[in-house]
Amino acid sequence: MTMNNSQTPPPIPTRSRISFGTKVVLLGLQCALLMIGALAIWILAYSRDERNKDVADQIIKEWGGEVTINGPLASEHPDSALVVRPSTFNCEATVDTKSLHRNIFEAEVFNARVAMSGTINKDNFTAKNDSIYIELNLPTSQLAKLSTLKICGETVEWSRGAHRLYAEVDVSGMPGILEFSTSFDIHGAESLFISQVGEQSFVTIEGEAQNPSFNGNSLPDERHLSGKQFSAQWETDIAPADIYDSRSVGANFLVGVDRYQKVTRSLKYSFMIILLTYASVLFAEIIMKRYIPLFNYFLIGAALIIFYILLLSFSEHMKFGISYLIATAMTVLLITGYMWKMLGSRKVAIAIGSILIGMYVSCYILLTLSTYSLILGSLILFAALAAMMYGSLQLKR
Asked: What is the 3-state secondary structure (H, E, C) of 223-263?
């Protein structure tokens, strides 16, 4: 009697299979091998990041680096040892940051509109000269626009030095309290600091930046952050005798977590994704009673590692979120389709694809929430372990 066995493929010989315990050990070795691939991608991302920093330094060098503004300070003549600080000093800086690109690399720079005003007491000068000198220290090569110095209604042109502006002012006939004002545009990168030169100083820095942080001799008395908009105010009193008491306040304009840092951070979760994916496929193998060779596991793991190469390459040409979405879609569709063809079960393939989507979404949330990433990661691991434990109860011994 001839049996028709054309509907089912012949079973794989038992001697070609391995025990469950041995397979788990070998899968663990596979995970370790795949982590070597993840390490190679991490080295590649680090190398690209260093290259990006070198190019960013070149851009910043050409655009202009950190900006520190000190002054205005008054004296009786340019070489005088007696320096008179303003009685009152008001400075408002409006900052607008932007990214400059060179090929696929970028650097964060800023333009700042600075307006200064205040008063100087003529009685603080020992000699009653007809002229005084006012000096403002800043990187003059980074000035874009410069208005005149206005003092008691008179207009005085600034003279430029290598790192300062100075002006000689005829104060004869002027009142005892000299009111001054000036403004300028200046461009730079990384940080903007303003010295609180007045006996009473009021400094305001506001504008638009992705990731501002406030620094200096004191933190702001008031600060407001809303999206990219920010503002900070400082108010300080200094005794008139402390003319050399230099206090500066300001803001750093950080790039934040850039694309290469996000890729390297995402690689930290690669072992968790590989481990949970292998566990899901192993459960599917046991439940479906379909033997999956180790080579097929390795191909699935390789797809999980290639995800990070896709993420790194895409993120150099588009926003990180879009790159992450495209890399995730490609990886999940590949593995889901592969599991469907391998097991012949659309339901199981969709279940594993859903697990992958959940893991990638969770990892993206971890990347965006720096403050709560540890607690969220711990909760995700706990939930994954709980799901595996309860899933194992469904396995028949």
From this structure: EEEECCEEEEEEEEECCCCCCCCCCEEEEEECCCCCHHHHH
Q: Specify the pairing of strand 212-216 against strand 200-208.
A: unpaired
DSSP assignment of 265-329: HHHTTHHHHHHHHHHHHHHHHHHHT----HHHHHHHHHHHHHHHHHHHHHHTTS-HHHHHHHHHH
Place of tokens 């949970």: 276
Let me know: does 34 contact 305? Beta carbons within 8 Å.
yes
Do 280 and 352 form a contact (C-beta atoms < 8 A)? yes
Tell me the C-alpha distance between 196 and 167, whole Å.
20
Per-residue pLDDT of 369-388, as tens digits, reads 765 566 766 776 677 667 66
**By C-alpha distance, which of 91, 89, 147 is closest to 118?**
89
Longest CA–CA span in the chain (Å) reads: 128
Q: What is the pLDDT of residues 128-173, one digit of tens each?
A: 677 889 999 999 888 988 999 999 888 999 998 878 899 988 888 8
289: Cβ–Cβ under 8 A, 6 or more apart, which residues? none
Cβ-count burial 313-351 (b if 16+ within 10 Å, e if not): ebbeeeebeebbeebbeebbebbbebbbebbebeebbeb
**Angle at the Cα of 246 from the Cα atoms of 242 and 251, rounded to 5 degrees:** 145
Q: Tell me, what DSSP letter sits at residue 124?
A: G
First to last CA, the chain: 36
Evaluated on CA atoms 303, 307, 308, 314, the torsion sign reads positive
Q: How far apart are CA 279 and CA 296, in angstroms?
A: 14
CA distances from 325 to 48, 272, 336, 364 (A): 21, 19, 16, 10
Q: How far apart are CA 358 and CA 244, in angstroms?
A: 60
Amino acid at 228: K
- Report the alpha-carbon distance of residue 131 to residue 119 in Å, rounded: 16
Of 384, 372, 185, residue with least CA distance to 280: 384
For residues 118 and 196, what is the distance between their CA atoms, to the nearest angstrom? Answer: 12
Q: pTM for this structure? A: 0.68
